[in-house]
Design brief:
Layout: H1 9-18, H2 23-30, H3 34-41, H4 49-61, H5 67-80
């Protein structure tokens, strides 16, 4: 069974906070309006493919977040929401 990686706003926020970077700082780094980024982090709006690429590149380049760290954060977020319960079957 293969699962597609879909970047979650909550994972972005956790990665950013782990690196002690403010929303405004990261928004400037990835050239996304801070209000728009805030809505993505709070999952009030979806993340477009273009923004997902910018954000992942920004996490890698500016915050030095590895792919493994991002996946681990994503798993923690989804596990906390019960998303992996279906895999246990």
């Amino acid at each position: 069974m293969q699962h597609e990686f879909i970047l979650r706003g909550k994972a972005i926020r956790i990665a950013r906070e782990i690196r002690d970077v403010s929303l405004q700082e990261f928004a400037d780094m990835v050239r996304i309006d801070n209000r728009y980024l805030s809505k993505m982090e709070r999952e009030r709006i979806g993340i477009t493919r273009m923004h997902e690429i910018r954000i992942i590149r920004g996490l890698r380049k500016h915050l030095k977040v590895s792919d493994a760290e991002l996946v681990a954060i994503q798993i923690i977020v989804e596990n906390a929401e019960g998303k992996f319960d279906e895999w246990k079957k």
